[in-house]
Amino acid sequence: MRDGVLLSGPLLRGPRTVHLIRHPATGAAFEAGVKEFFLLSRLDGTRNLDDLAPAYAARFGRRLDEGNWNRLLGLLGTRGLLDGAPDPPPSAPAPTRTGTFWRGTRRMVADADATTARLHRILRPLLHPALQLPLLAAVLAMEVALVLHFGELMDGTLELFRQPVVLAAVALFLWFSITVHELAHGVAAQHYGGHVAEIGLRWRFPAAMLYCTVDNYLFLPGRRAKLVIAGAGAHINLLLLLPFALWWALLPVDDPARPLLAGLLFLGSVQGLSNLVPLPPLDGYRMLGHALGAAHLAPETRTYLALRAGRGGTEATAAYPRRARTLYTAYGIGSALLLLLAVTGTCTVAVLLLLR
Predict the structure, then answer these.
(1) What's the pLDDT score for residue 84?
(2) Are strands 11-13 and 29-33 parallel, antiparallel or unpaired?
(3) Can you give the pLDDT at residue 256?
(4) Taking residues 65-90, what's their average pLDDT?
(5) Cis before 125 (ω within 30)
(6) How far apart, in whole angstroms, are the C-alpha atoms of residue 186 and residue 199?
(7) Contact 244, 261 (CB under 8 A)
(8) How big is the CA angle at 317 (ends 301 and 279), to the nearest 5 degrees?
(9) Which residues make beta-bridge pairs with 207?
(10) At 129, is the secondary structure helix, strand, or coil?
């Protein structure tokens, strides 16, 4: 294999376990099965066919003939993955702007990776676990305190909506929080050796927000890095609320600023915590996929449940291993309950606000 080819860990996808392969020059990604990965991960220039063939036969109980080897190496060469193979034709550069006036994206930074690398160098001392773990504990304590004062938060949110100028300031702060959220993904990726491909603006008229694309973090070793990168945005959203929570806690109960701060804390907490819900396209959905080692969890769940509900469901899903059947069934039930809970919670909060 050529230098720089990235290989991911095992990922459950439907009834199969797959690995991702990424071309170092074009960024194109391919899927390979367990058997193909066994060979690809050993094509390091130190082994020849006499080494690989017996190892493959011992692992999978059969030897590959010359035709199998020719097809495999031919495919790798065609895709430019072998050492010395020509690169595939370069793709046209992505346009700076896509979409229409109503919805689209625009790239805002010429070199997103260099920009986030500079931010990482500045912020690196703050990323040490000795600091981040106490901050995480403070965030958890803040959320527990807010739950215990839920009624005050409802009153404060209602008061906030009665003051349009203050509400506009809170909305601006929450928009800023979304911007920092996206940059946090990029800085976390830099911390673990990831690559930030693009920073830009995405709009759905009349709303617009920053986005940050990390294109190779699925290939980082271990699950911790992936979980931290995916969860960094929600973490920073909640960290930004800590000074306001302290201010709110120190104010007298009759202080006129206290209800407004309570409204800010409620809206900010909803914004941060909702990103951790394991439903697509939220960060919590990506985190769950990383934790379970599963790719395309939602669509594969839909496919499995559709097969299961169709005629001959048992036979149609016979190829799925036990782990896949358990996971997709549990996620299907769990996501339905989460949607029901989200709708019920939203309606309950709306009714509470209307009745106050």
Answers:
(1) 86
(2) unpaired
(3) 92
(4) 85
(5) no
(6) 9
(7) yes
(8) 5
(9) 204
(10) helix
Element (H, E) at 308: helix 297-309
CA 232/CA 298 separation, integer angstroms? 22
| Distance in angstroms (rounded) separating the CA atoms of residues 105 and 281 | 17
> Exposed, middle or buried, 129 (CB in 10 Å: 0-12/13-18/19+)?
exposed
Q: How far is CA 139 from CA 124, 177, 237, 335, in A?
A: 20, 15, 10, 26
Model confidence over 83-125: pLDDT tens digits?
988 776 666 677 888 888 889 999 999 899 999 999 999 999 9
C-alpha–C-alpha distance, residues 237 and 275, integer Å: 10
| 87 vs 321, higher pLDDT | 321
- Contact assessment for residue 289 and residue 297, using Cβ atoms and an 8 Å cutoff: yes
Q: Are the beta carbons of 303 and 283 closer than 8 angstroms?
A: no
Residues 197, 186: Cα–Cα separation, whole Å: 9
No. of helices (H) and no. of strands (E), the chain: 14, 8
Residue 92 DSSP label: P
Which residues is 20 bridged to in the sheet? Answer: 31
pLDDT band at residue 45 under the 50/70/90 scheme? confident
Nearest-5° Cα angle at 45, 42 to 49? 65
- CB–CB of 197/206 below 8 Å? no
Task: Please state, in angstroms and rounded to a whole number, the distance separating the CA atoms of residues 311 and 213.
Answer: 41
Q: Give one DSSP letter per residue of 54-69, joined into a string.
A: HHHHHHHSS---HHHH
Q: Tell me the pTM.
A: 0.91
How is 170-234 classified by DSSP, letter by letter?
Answer: HHHHHHHHHHHHHHHHHHHHHHTT--EEEEEEEEETTEEEEEEEESSGGGSSSSHHHHHHHHHHH
Closest CA to 173 of 268, 306, 43: 268
Going edge to edge, which strands form the sheet with 97-99? 97-99, 103-107, 196-204, 207-214
Residue 193, phi-psi category: left (phi > 0), alpha (psi -120 to 50), beta (remainder)? left
Residue 285 is encoded by which pair of tokens?
């959905």
